[in-house]
Amino acid sequence: MKNQLQPLMFAGTGSDVGKSVIAAAFCRIFKQDGYTPAPFKAQNMALNSYATPEGLEIGRAQAVQAEAAGIPCHTDMNPLLLKPSADTICQVVLNGKSIGNKHAIDYFTSNNKQKLREEVCAAFDRLNARYNPIVLEGAGSISEINLREVDLVNMSMAQHAEASVILVADIDRGGVFASVYGSIMLLNEAERKLVKGILINKFRGDLRLFQSGTKMLEELCGIPVVGVVPYFKDIHIEEEDSVMLHTKNRFSQSGKVNIVVVLLQHMSNFTDFNALEHDERVHLYYSNQPTEIADADIIIIPGTKNTLQDLQILRRDNIAQAILQAHQSGKTVLGICGGYQMLGRELHDPTHIESDLTQIPGLGILPLSTTLEGEKITRQVEFSFADDTITCKGYEIHNGRTDFLSDIQTLNKLIDNTEDGCISANCIGTYIHGILDNKSFVDYLLSPYQNEKQQQTFDYFSFKEEQFDKLADHVRKHVDMELIYQLIS
């Protein structure tokens, strides 16, 4: 049996410095080295979520890190998830279940912080009893001193876990010396003692040019630099944030099947499309421009945290009209989750689960009526689609009940003999996220647009495993792993 290691936390000088990917890398490294690691992030804010085997909801980043560790995901890995539904309002998911919507000011100043602190610490303790080591991830900057008293995810969690903290800084954005030194100096004495190392991330160019910088940082901070990790483009790990989707692969291309994902204002679960991004038969792009949407062979309307409001925006910006015209011209339209609900004739939100709107007409392509009510459905599913007998996998995370208003062919049959979604000529709708990770379904979707020479398939599950190994090799090469093990032994 491997010796017990101390928990290891990757905290950041700011947001988007690469903490999630670095944590995933170490989950895979520890697995490769014969340990049984597990990821943990006390509080995550994201619209990208995932259903655990128990049918509960966690942040997608921790599900990806669990994949890297080779273990099933669990709510203890992300006990508190905040899902923004407006600029100042978010849904609070505690231990996998929604406990309602909160205004930001209420969430950060209310008296329930101690209760939440107890919950996230208990989740860590349960996880720590089962796995070795725990790889923790912080959120944003560790030095938001105005939030120190209500912090659940950064240094207060490191103190509870007795974790060795590695401070991750993004050198690509500039100001790395100030951000590292300032972050450490703004910590109090007890917090500073937990910071055992500095990791410089996203370095471009000749690493020898930063050797003097490494020495300067170590002298300034009195803390070793455990590694300088170069920026990479050829390793593909799921991203946590969707802020850069609009820059990806713009416009259609000849010689490939052009697929556009409609950029919704409250878009969620954008990782549904990662498999398509790497399929050589496909050119995938994201757009909210009617002309760019009209150019695609296949139009996908994704999930959203605010279905009714996003549908209003599609109408206002003439995107709805572009989708309808493309469908009428024979192009394929696929709706997933909230996008599926939009394809129907009407949507109802009588108890205002998502917005102040009570009712709105849908796009009217499918004979459906959806009512948002009751408890959120979160579960992993296995299913077969259309007349295919191959078993596929995916997950559901949605509010609402969708009823058929007339006879229509169902799309998916689940292993519990229930049904999901529907198909009518060139329009498909489903509640199942991850349906596009299944190569048999993607082959089915692309088949009307391919010739015989293009009939190769793409195995996304094998692809992801290869990427985790490539990531681990990349990070291991540029980090002093002997020093890391010394710090946590």
Task: Give a quick precis of the structure.
The protein is of the alpha/beta class.
Summarize the structure in words:
The protein is an alpha/beta fold and 489 residues long. It has two domains: 8-236 and 466-488, 3-Layer(aba) Sandwich (Rossmann fold); 245-458, Class I glutamine amidotransferase (GATase) domain (Rossmann fold). 30% of the residues lie in helices and 27% in strands. The strands form six sheets. The protein has a nine-stranded mixed β-sheet. Strands 2-9-1-10-11-12 form a six-stranded parallel β-sheet, sandwiched between helices. Strands 3-6-7-8 form a four-stranded mixed β-sheet. The model has no long low-confidence stretch (mean pLDDT 91).
The quaternary structure here is single chain
Strand content: 25-35%
| Average pLDDT score | 91
Strand order of the largest sheet: 15-13-16-18-27-26-25-22-23
Q: Tell me what the CATH architecture of the largest domain is.
A: 3-Layer(aba) Sandwich
The number of helices is 16
**CATH T-level fold name of the largest domain:** Rossmann fold
Q: What is the CA-based Rg, rounded?
A: 23 Å
Number of strands: 27
Number of domains: 2
Helix content: 25-40%
Ends apart, CA distance between termini: 14 Å
* Low-confidence region ranges: none
Q: Globular, elongated, flat, extended or rod-shaped: what is the shape? A: globular
